[in-house]
Amino acid sequence: MEKTFQPADIETRWYQQWESQGYFAPRGGERAYCIMIPPPNVTGSLHMGHGFQEAIMDALIRYHRMRGDNTLWQVGTDHAGIATQMVVERQLEAQGLSRHDLGREKFLEKVWEWKEQSGGTITRQLRRLGSSLDWSRERFTMDPGLSEAVQEVFIRLYREGLIYRGKRLVNWDPALHTAISDLEVIQEEEQGHLWHFDYPLAGGEGHLTVATTRPETMLGDTAVAVHPEDERYQHLIGRMVKLPLTDREIPVIADDYVDREFGTGVVKITPAHDFNDYEMGRRHGLPMINILDDDAAINDQAPAAYRGLDRFEARKRVVADLEAQGLLAGIEAHSLRVPRGDRSGVVIEPYLTDQWYVDARELAKPAIAAVENRAIQFVPKQWENTYFAWMRDIQDWCISRQLWWGHRIPAWYDEQGNFYVASSEAAVRAEHGLGDDIALRQDEDVLDTWFSSALWTFSTLGWPQDTEELATFHPTSVLVTGFDIIFFWVARMIMMTLHFRQEVPFHTVYVHGLVRDAEGQKMSKSKGNVLDPIDLIDGIDLESLVAKRTAGLMQPQLAARIERATREQFPDGIAPYGTDALRFTYFSLASTGRDIRFDIGRIEGYRNFCNKIWNAARYVLMNCDGQDCGSGADAAVELSLADRWIRSKLAATTAEVHRAIAQYRFDLASQALYEFVWNEYCDWYLELSKPVLWDDTASAAAQRGTRQTLISVLETTLRLLHPFMPFITEEIWQTVAPIAGKNGPTIMLQPYPEGGDKDVDTVANADIEWVKGVVLGVRNIRGEMNIPPGKAVPILLRNGDERDRERLRDNTQFLRKLARLESADWLEAGDTAPVAATALVGELEILVPMAGLIDREAELARLSREIDKLEKDLARVQGKLGNPAFVAKAPAAVVAKEQEKMQAQQQALATLQEQARNIGQL
RNA sequence: AGGACUAUAGCUCAGUUGGUUAGAGCGCUACCUUGACAUGGUAGAGGUCCCCAGUUCGAAUCUGGGUAGUCCUACCA
User: Fold this and answer.
1) Residue lying closest to nucleotide B19, CA to C1'
2) pLDDT tens-digit profile of A419-442?
3) Using CA atoms, how far apart are residues A684 and A482, in angstroms rounded to an integer?
4) FRET pair for A140, CA 20 to 30 Å: which of A516, A771, A841, A849?
């Protein structure tokens, strides 16, 4: 074995081996366990958040696979309508082309080409992360099967009246030329202005002053509104005002939506360009005048002077023209929430168009019930509140998108504007008796990407066919996801699955935190703080990292700042840490919090942990390979105290890991494993094995017992670790397993260690604690007195009981080695003690004679520190026990414990004080 | 405006149903190449558990109020 762990050599080799042997596929069995991968964008690439999520899913999958469950991790990717179309359009733009130049068919060919070309990135990354996905079942949301599912769902919902077509105000993205759903709009506070305009009364007897943040919309005003009880304006209700810049007159209406306190208490109403005004317009039967075109430029409904102007240009002109007419009553600074498209970043327009909608309210009812009655449980539970809050106030879902890339809506129109929904044009003709003489054209629009991903849990398993996979794996076991897509995806999956399968899509939703950078900032391309998990695995030099972060920016002017920050944060680039270290870092961060700060410092610690495991294995193999490890049935095997103790610790750790996984506390699981491997197995057990193995006089049975324990505990630990660190455990296991008497082609399919608490040996634990106590006591004196580590010291023991004497007898060899003792002898009652430094293990005193070793002043200082600490603690305990209310009211066991504590402390204090006196008198 | 979450060592975070000497990793200090490992070992320093009040024999933990931060939802033009 190499002296240090070299991950790069082994990872790819093992992954290829596993995949080619078909180990990732379900293997049958009683209990099914299934996770659906949240499908990543097929043309995208994985970031740290994905890496985190994949690691968690893989740990769960490997854990259940090893436990013998019929385990499926379904892999697949999403066509990501808007994002993908945008990328390809930008590529065309570079050649001076638009998608319209190519036409729909040619354009789609280009998108498919791009998908083929870039689609490998994601799957390559997934493999590098060690994800044990069943690649033989890979799916894509635009596969024929999944497309069939999408069409089936659309048609059925339409026929059930749960999908309808309607002219409504939608969120229009003027850059992407498509409607988007409420969820795809980001509202952010921005600085703007509030303009006050005077609208003259038609009778010429004055004016009303309105306030607006969007002056250009006044061209589409069809009323002004006041509060019905507002005394200032009551007499004007029903009168007309002249709408400036136009030749129209519009009514003054009353509506209690109007806030009397805000602005002048008069609101201009533009039903075609504002969601509230739209509602009010409907209540009052106002006309709706659309003054914008698809680019959000002013259209022909507006006065000629403004036609063709961009909305922001039009705003300037409107303000200027009103000012010229003396109707601008004032401008004030005003902060408002501006809606922007989450993809394009441009200001979204409420825009009146024909769109398709899903009646979400109806579908939400059973979806709410499923969580209420615990058929679906969120972990952590608090996310259920988020889910309920949204579901109980859900709005209809606009599912049509004016894109080309996606599932085309299965609806056909005739010349009269009638439309028909069916699986194909032929089906429409057949079902509605339409002859070939009637021209039909299919709806140009496609469906929201989330519409197809809402079907993901069952469409990937073959629905609408009745497949065996559906029967076996659906409902799936758990969904692992971030809270940011509870609305987008989780809720919609629950609604759709319940409706079409009459069962839940999954029993549990495990909601993990979002990975952020070391400063707590969200990772984003434009901030230039994204990390590619592969760069942490393989390492990357600074120049490549800078190049990667500054390439293809939407806002190239940010490049300089990103470069500077990157050079500052990673002056030497990123070292290669390997997949196992990265994964273990993820697990250690997977607590219940919402934000996960990824600090590069932590991964280094876990790389060291890998190396620790590697070297522990090296030690074990050096001592066990080719030796008698007691695997022969008849050979006598004798277990030492240390052997029994480490087996006991392993059992306790096993139990803890099972508990932690059951609660999705991967941080606790990883901590328990780290602690066991490093602080128990390596720090103590390997050291305790040395005196046995290196003792020529030790019995063969004892050496056999120790070798057997070394190798079997290591072998079990590797299996325990495997779901978290798949590569290093496989690599070592291949060598270790045969020596431990285990056979099999791979650790992946070995049974996961079971058992646990019942195998804990409390006697062995207590005895080793005693040994540790003595060793630590001596080491402490050594450390503080600067006794050279190589120097063996004699110790004397005093005031111990029979048990202490027994323990010393049994463990002299351990103590000699670990504390580097020259000798250990009892001081009997009549003996006079030499001047010595003292350590306490309970009532037992350990004396290290000072002659030639120990500095008087240093020992006095050390003692006085110890005494100080004890006095403080004692005062607290005495205070407690001195409180009659405590003694009277606290449970007897608690009081007894405090009393014991007090006595122990008093005793220890007395001993140390006497020591201090003795030394002080010298 | 409403709601949620967070506040513990220099940093990143654990801390179960109230009873611990409040823990871990990283970082820091001193010493050490001893036959698995310097990606290491040994010892050590470091905390007013955000603040105030309350409940309780007892509060990092429960309640109320505040402060700071993050996020979500909402129609103030």
Assistant:
1) A894
2) 999 999 999 999 998 888 899 999
3) 40
4) A516
Q: Which of A535, A534, A560, A558 is nearest to A545 (CA)?
A: A535
Q: What is the pLDDT of residues A684-734, one digit of tens each?
A: 999 999 999 988 888 888 899 999 999 999 999 999 999 999 999 999 999
The secondary element (H helix, E strand) that includes residue A165 is strand A163-173
Distance of alpha carbon A325 from its chain centroid, rounded? Answer: 58
Structure tokens at A427: 């089906």
| A441-442 and A844-849 beta bridge pairing | unpaired
Task: Please give the Cα distance from A729 to A746 (Å, whole number).
Answer: 10
Buried b (16+ CB within 10 A) or exposed e, A597-611: ebebebbeebbebbb
The reported pLDDT for the residue numbered A836 is 85
Q: Which nucleotide lies nearest residue A876, CA to C1'?
A: B21
Which residue type is seen at A100? H
Q: Is the CB of A385 under 7 A from strand B?
A: yes
* Confidence band for A540, pLDDT divided at 50, 70 and 90: very high
DSSP label at residue A271: T
Spatial contact of A636 and A701, defined as CB atoms under 8 Å apart? yes
A797 CA vs B13 C1’ separation (Å): 41
Q: How many CA atoms lie within 13 A of A174 on its CB side?
A: 19
Amino acid A525 CA to nucleotide B11 C1' distance, rounded Å: 26
Q: Which of A394-408, A491-505, A559-573 has the lowest mean pLDDT?
A: A559-573
Q: In which element (H, E) is residue A115 found?
A: helix A104-118
Which residue reads 């303009």 in tokens?
A195
Tell if A79 CB is < 7 Å from nucleic strand B. Answer: no
Among candidates A744, A745, A746, which has minimal Cα distance to A730? Answer: A746
Report the C-alpha gap between A77 and A79 in whole angstroms: 7
The answer to whether the C-beta of A887 is closer than 7 A to strand B is no
The full DSSP string for A322-340 is: HHHTT-EEEEEEEEEEEEE
For residue A266, the one-letter residue type is V
Token duo for residue A880: 């407690």
Would you say the pTM of this structure is higher than 0.90?
Answer: yes
Q: Which residues pair with A804 in a beta bridge?
A: none
CA A713 to chain centre: 32
d(CA A740, CA A718): 12
Inter-residue contact A79 to A139 (CB < 8 Å): no
Is the pLDDT at A233 greater than 90? The verdict is no
- ipTM score for this prediction: 0.94
Contacts 24+ apart (CB under 8 A), A459-466: A459/A139, A459/A145, A459/A146, A459/A149, A459/A150, A460/A36, A460/A74, A460/A76, A460/A137, A460/A139, A460/A146, A461/A74, A462/A145, A463/A149, A463/A500, A463/A501, A464/A148, A464/A149, A464/A152
CA triple A729-A734-A735, angle to 5 deg = 110
N- to C-terminal Cα separation, chain A: 56
Type of residue numbered A232: R
Residues 603-622 of A with CB under 7 A from strand B: 604-605, 607-608, 610-612, 615-616, 618-619, 622
Q: What is the pLDDT of residues A796-842, one digit of tens each?
A: 998 888 999 999 999 998 998 899 898 899 988 888 888 888 888 88
Cα separation, A145 vs A462, whole angstroms: 7
Amino acid at A233: Y
Sign of CA dihedral A368, A372, A378, A381: positive
DSSP characters over A408-427 = BP-EEE-TTS-EEESSSHHH
Is A853's pLDDT higher than 80? no
Q: Is the CB of A879 under 7 A from strand B?
A: no
Q: Is the CB of A527 under 7 A from strand B?
A: no
